[in-house]
Design a protein that fits this description.
The complex is a heterodimer of chains A (328) and B (292). Chain A is mainly alpha-helical and 328 residues long. Chain A has helices spanning 2-10, 12-29, 33-58, 66-83, 88-110, 115-135, 137-140, 161-183, 186-196, 198-203, 208-234, 244-257, 262-278, 286-300, 311-327, and strands at residues 153-154, 157-158. In chain B, helix 1 (2-30) runs antiparallel to helix 10 (238-258), helix 2 runs antiparallel to helix 3 (59-87) and helix 5 crosses helix 6. Chain B is mostly helical and 292 residues long. Chain B contains 11 helices and 4 strands; from the N terminus they run H-H-H-H-E-E-E-H-H-H-H-E-H-H-H. Classes of the chains: A mainly alpha (328), B mainly alpha (292).
Chain lengths: 328, 292
C-alpha cells in the first residue's frame, strides 16, 4: 500500500494523464447510450461532490443540504431557457451566479456560527428551497415540474449524447483546475488555517468570516453549475429531485471519497453513482445491499477511500528521506 | 379554534420532543447527527403492526416488544458499527454516513417485508374524548401528551440525577478525561443509543396510532425536524430538546391552521435559521467559550 502510494505520488502527473485519457476515451469505447448516460451522470455527481468537498473537506462544515443549491442552479437554468429562451452558455453561467448569490445570502448571516449550526442551516435551506419549488406555481409549475428543458445546443445544432458527455467532462476538469488553484492560493491556505484553528488564524491576520463567505460562495457556485447542466441534460426537473435524501447521497459521496482530497471526490461520486446501477438486477433488495455496502465501506475505511492521503506530503517525505541518505 | 390548534400542536410537538431528546443525547455525547433515528421511529410501529394487527397479540405486549427491539437495534448499531469507526479515530461525519447506511437498510428492509403501501394501525386506546370549552381533545392526544411528559421526566431524572447520567454528561464534555476517571465510555455511549432509539420507537408508535397508519416515507421529515428541534433547544439539554420539539410542532400547526399548510415546514425552518442567528446556542444550551 505504501509503495503504491509512493509510486502514485512520484508519478502523479502521469496518473492524472492516464485518468484523463480514460475519461476521454470512455464514450468512444462504450458507445451504448445507457453507458454514456451513466458516465455523464457520474461526471455531474463528481462536479457536485467536488464543490461539496470545498465546503466539507477544506472548510470543515458538513453540508447537509447540498441538493438545495444544486436545485437552485437547475431551476435557474430551466426557467431561463424555457421562459426566456436563453442559450446554454448563458444559463450555465446564470445558474452558477444565482446559486452563489443564494450562497452569500445564506452565508452572510450564518457563517459566524460554529460549523454544526451551519450544517443545520444548509439542511433547513434545502427544505425551504423545496417548499418554494413546490409552491411557487407561477414560476416553477410546482410539483408538476418543468418539462421540455432544451438540450445543450449551439447555433441551432443540438448536441448528441456523447457531446454532452464531453461538455460536462470539460466542466469537471475546469472545476478541478480552478479549485486546485484556489486551494493553493492565499484564500485556500487561509480557509484551511481557519478550519484547523480560527483563533490562531485570525491572530495571523486571516479574517475567518470573510474567508468563509468567499469559500461558501465559490462552493455553491460550482454546485449551481452542476445543477444547471443537469437540468439541460435530463430535460425535466421537479422538486423531488432536490430533496434531503438527495443531499444525503451527495454528502455520502464526498465523505466516502475522502475529505480534503479532490481525487477522492471523483472516486466517491463515481462509485456511488455506478453502484446502484450494478445492483439493479437485484431489484427489491438493491437498496438494502446499497445500504450494507455503505456501512461496510465506512467500517473498512472510515476516513474515505483517499482520505488522509496527501500526495504532496508523501513526496516531501520521500525527498527528505533520499536527501538524508545522500548526506550520510 | 385557538385552543384546538394549541392542543393539536402540543400533541405533534410532544412526539417531536420525544424523538429530539434521544437525538440530542446522542449528539451531545458524540457530536454525531444520528440519521438512523428517523428509521427507528418508523421501524417500531411496523413491529407493532406485525404483532398486534397481524398476529393478534395484545397491544401492550406488542408495544413493549417493539420498543425493546428498536432499543436493542440502536444499541447494536453502536456496538457493531459505530464503535469500530470510532476506534479508527475517523471524523464523526464517517459515522454519520454509516447511520445513513443503517437507515437505508432499515427503511428498505421494511419495504421489502411489508410493501411500500401504507399500513393501517387500529386504534388501541379508546378512552373517549374530553371537551375543553369548544375544543376537543381525543383520548389519543391525551395519551400522547401524558406519556411524553412521563417519559421525558424519566429521561431528565436519568440524565441529571443518576450516575449513568453524570457519566453521559462527562463524556459530552471530555471523553478522554472521563475515561481516566473510570467511565466505561463505549458502554455508556451504547446505553445512550439504546435510550435514544427506544424513545424514538415510543414516539413513532404513538404517532402511527394517532394517524391510524404508518408508512416509510415519514422518516425523512422526522429526521430533519428532530435535528432542528434538538439544535433549537440547545444541544445536550433535555428540557431544551423538549421545548424545541414543542415549538416546532406548534409552529407547524399554527402556520397550517391560520395560513397555509403548503408553507408550514418552510416557516418552521425560516424561524429556526432566524433563531440560530440571534441565539446561536439554542434556547437552553450552554454557551461554549471559544478557546484556543
Amino acid at each position: 500500500m505504501k509503495q503504491f502510494l509512493q509510486g502514485w505520488a512520484k508519478n502523479e502527473k502521469w496518473v492524472n494523464l492516464v485518468l484523463f485519457a480514460i475519461a476521454v476515451v470512455y464514450p468512444l469505447l462504450f458507445t451504448r447510450a445507457y453507458l454514456i448516460n451513466i458516465g455523464t451522470l457520474c461526471l455531474v455527481n463528481v462536479l457536485v461532490s467536488l464543490s461539496l468537498n470545498v465546503l466539507t473537506g477544506y472548510m470543515g462544515i458538513t453540508g447537509l443540504g447540498w441538493a438545495g443549491f444544486f436545485g437552485i442552479g437547475a431551476y435557474t437554468a430551466a426557467i431561463l431557457s424555457t421562459k426566456l429562451g436563453w442559450g446554454f452558455l448563458a444559463t450555465l453561467l446564470a445558474g452558477a451566479v444565482m446559486t452563489a448569490l443564494c450562497g452569500i445570502l445564506v452565508g452572510l448571516p450564518t457563517l459566524k456560527l460554529s460549523g454544526r449550526y451551519v450544517a443545520i442551516v444548509t439542511m433547513a435551506f434545502c427544505e425551504i428551497c423545496r417548499a418554494l419549488e413546490t409552491n411557487l406555481d407561477w414560476l416553477t409549475r410546482g410539483s408538476r415540474g418543468i418539462p421540455g428543458i432544451p438540450r445543450l445546443a449551439l447555433f441551432g445544432f443540438r448536441f448528441p449524447k456523447w457531446m454532452q458527455y464531453y461538455v460536462i467532462l470539460a466542466l469537471v476538469i475546469l472545476t478541478m483546475f480552478i479549485i486546485n488553484r484556489i486551494i493553493n492560493s492565499r484564500l485556500g491556505r487561509g480557509i484551511m488555517a481557519v478550519k484547523d484553528d480560527d483563533i490562531a488564524a485570525s491572530a495571523m491576520g486571516v479574517n475567518p468570516f470573510r474567508y468563509k463567505v468567499m469559500t461558501f460562495a465559490i462552493a455553491t457556485a460550482f454546485a449551481g453549475l452542476a445543477g444547471a447542466f443537469y437540468a439541460h441534460y435530463i430535460g425535466f426537473i421537479d422538486p423531488s429531485n432536490f430533496t434531503f435524501d438527495q443531499s444525503t447521497i451527495f454528502i455520502s459521496m464526498t465523505i466516502m471519497g475522502g475529505l480534503g482530497n479532490l481525487m477522492g471526490s471523483v472516486l466517491g461520486a463515481i462509485s456511488l453513482t455506478v453502484l446502484p446501477e450494478i445492483l439493479r438486477p437485484l431489484l427489491d433488495v438493491r437498496q438494502i445491499v446499497y445500504g450494507v455496502l455503505l456501512i461496510v465501506m465506512m467500517l473498512v475505511r472510515p476516513q474515505g477511500i483517499l482520505g488522509g492521503f496527501n500526495l504532496k506530503h508523501i513526496r516531501q517525505q520521500m525527498s527528505v528521506r533520499s536527501g538524508g541518505e545522500k548526506h550520510e | 379554534m385557538l385552543l384546538q390548534q394549541i392542543i393539536n400542536g402540543l400533541t405533534i410537538g410532544a412526539t417531536y420532543a420525544l424523538v429530539a431528546v434521544g437525538f440530542s443525547m446522542v449528539y451531545s455525547v458524540l457530536e454525531l447527527a444520528n440519521f438512523a433515528n428517523g428509521a427507528f421511529y418508523v421501524f417500531a410501529p411496523y413491529i407493532v403492526v406485525l404483532l398486534y394487527a397481524s398476529m393478534g397479540w395484545g397491544f401492550i405486549p406488542a408495544f413493549l416488544i417493539a420498543v425493546l427491539a428498536t432499543g436493542i437495534l440502536g444499541a447494536m448499531m453502536d456496538r457493531f458499527i459505530l464503535t469500530t469507526i470510532r476506534n479508527h479515530k475517523a471524523q464523526t461525519s464517517s459515522s454519520m454516513v454509516a447511520t445513513l447506511g443503517v437507515s437505508t437498510v432499515i427503511i428498505n428492509g421494511l419495504i421489502a417485508v411489508f410493501g411500500s403501501a401504507t399500513r393501517s394501525l387500529p386504534n388501541a386506546v379508546n378512552i373517549g374524548r374530553i371537551y375543553i370549552g369548544s375544543a376537543i381533545m381525543t383520548g389519543n392526544q391525551l395519551v400522547i401528551i401524558v406519556m411524553s411528559v412521563i417519559i421525558m421526566a424519566v429521561l431528565s431524572i436519568i440524565v441529571y440525577k443518576t450516575k449513568l447520567g453524570s457519566a453521559m454528561r462527562s463524556i459530552a464534555q471530555n471523553q478522554v478525561a472521563s475515561r481516566m476517571m473510570g467511565v466505561n465510555v463505549n458502554r455508556i455511549i451504547t446505553v445512550t443509543f439504546l435510550i435514544g432509539s427506544a424513545s424514538a420507537a415510543i414516539a413513532g408508535t404513538m404517532v402511527a396510532m394517532y394517524y391510524g397508519s404508518v408508512d416509510t416515507t415519514l422518516y425523512t421529515s422526522v429526521s430533519v425536524k428532530t435535528f432542528a428541534s434538538a439544535i433549537l433547544g440547545g444541544i445536550g439539554s433535555v428540557p431544551g430538546a423538549m421545548l424545541g420539539g414543542v415549538i416546532i410542532g406548534m409552529l407547524e400547526t399554527f402556520v397550517a391552521g391560520y395560513w397555509t399548510s403548503a408553507y408550514k415546514d418552510m416557516i418552521a425552518f425560516i424561524i429556526i435559521i432566524a433563531f440560530l442567528i440571534f441565539k446561536p446556542n439554542g434556547l437552553l444550551g450552554h454557551r461554549k467559550l471559544n478557546k484556543v
